[in-house]
Amino acid sequence: MSLLLTGAGCLGHPRQAATIDVLVLLPDGSPAYETRLHGGGRAQWSWQQRSFWWRIPTEAGCWIITKPDYEPLVIDDPRQLQPAADGVVELRLQPASSIRGRIESELGRSVGYQVVLLDTTPCDSGYEQRPAAEDFAAGFETVPVFLGNDAWPPKRLPTRVDCGAEGSFEMRGLRAGRHYRLRLWNPRTLEVATSAPVLAGTQDFVWRLPASSMRPVTGRLCDRRGAAVAGVELWIEVPLQPGEAEVDRFVTPRVRSDRDGAFGFERLPRRPLVLRTDAPRWCDPERSIAADGDAAAQRVQLDRRCQLTVGFDGPGPRPDAMRLLDAGGAVLPAELERPGLAVERGRELPLVRGDGRGLGGFVAFVSERAAVLVLLREGAEWRRVPLAWDADGELSLRL
């Protein structure tokens, strides 16, 4: 079940209108101390208030109560709760279920694989790692970002486990009677597989993997003039599928291009992949690699990363969005820095503050192929400005 909290709910507070008191008990009927109540982008802990008694609003909404080693308690609509004569709803926790299994590979090795739990219960609780309710039920502990602690380095979520020496694994904190899919992957080779739904409580699941067809991926980095680009970090990742979050992204360990711009990955699966780079002076090409690609070296061209600084003069109307085009009119992806706001990435970027007012200026980072700045106002083109980069890849404009 899932419960969310919108007010400080604990024993002794005066009852408010449109709320309901929830008493959380253990299976033996004793109070369930140290439960969490999640919702509205924040979480509350009973160990802060020593509370097993929560007060929640009765308007429609999903609410989550979790406690380590117990099944997440989900209430999709508090209005459906039936209070006792004293107006209190008693909810009793049950022990969490688990899935135990092992991996069997035709290659004879199951070491190095990681198993990730899919179809989990979303739990909006302000944590950067986006843990599910099953993570909290399995004992996930850290301080949420909104309390001013980034909890760095992040802890491994319990719904991501490494296989043991014999390929064994266990997923804990599950909801009884619910089916979960499992995703298996090898961080070194990017082998990825997804299971059929498995019933929580299954203790003898055997996952047999067919032999994978592997291939090397090699290549050479160069600039637009064909010169080698050395010292750039590269990695390869599996593209995200619809509905997957950034935390589900699978990537290889990083390698670095040598003095001739050459790089290589020895064993990768024959499936669609994406080559990524990380270098301050160069744009990430996000180069797609086809599933049927062979071992031939790939020539990967990198575009220089240029900086555009724009300031607006005078009190007149100002643009509220921008695009950057190449010489052929294609819209290029860019990064936008706005004073006091987070960096935004995209192909059409807003030029307004949080209160909707126009900016006095901005800094954008884009490929050296950018030839035209297009400024927009209320959805219509407002002004076009040709771009000419200097030798350092920079340009400053006053408009």
Overall description:
The structure is a single chain. The chain is mainly beta. It folds into 4 domains: 19-92, Sandwich (Immunoglobulin-like); 97-209, Immunoglobulins (Immunoglobulin-like); 214-301, Carboxypeptidase-like, regulatory domain (Immunoglobulin-like), CATH 2.60.40.1120; 305-398. The chain has helices at residues 46-49, 133-137; strands at 19-25, 36-39, 42-45, 53-57, 63-66, 73-75, 88-92, 97-105, 114-117, 160-162, 168-174, 179-180, 182-185, 192-194, 198-199, 205-209, 214-222, 233-238, 250-251, 255-256, 262-269, 273-278, 287-289, 298-301, 305-311, 321-325, 334-337, 344-346, 349-350, 361-367, 372-377, 380-386, 394-398. Strands 18, 19, 20, 22 and 23 form a 5-stranded antiparallel sheet that branches.
Please tell me the overall pLDDT: 80
Number of separate domains? 4
Low-confidence stretches: 1-17, 144-153
So what's the overall shape?
flat
Question: Mind sketching the topology for me?
Answer:
Elements: E1 19-25, E2 36-39, E3 42-45, H1 46-49, E4 53-57, E5 63-66, E6 73-75, E7 88-92, E8 97-105, E9 114-117, H2 133-137, E10 160-162, E11 168-174, E12 179-180, E13 182-185, E14 192-194, E15 198-199, E16 205-209, E17 214-222, E18 233-238, E19 250-251, E20 255-256, E21 262-269, E22 273-278, E23 287-289, E24 298-301, E25 305-311, E26 321-325, E27 334-337, E28 344-346, E29 349-350, E30 361-367, E31 372-377, E32 380-386, E33 394-398
Parallel strand pairs: 1-7, 8-16, 17-24, 25-33
Antiparallel strand pairs: 1-4, 2-3, 2-5, 5-6, 8-11, 9-10, 9-13, 12-15, 13-14, 17-21, 18-19, 18-20, 18-22, 22-23, 25-30, 26-29, 26-31, 27-28, 27-30, 31-32
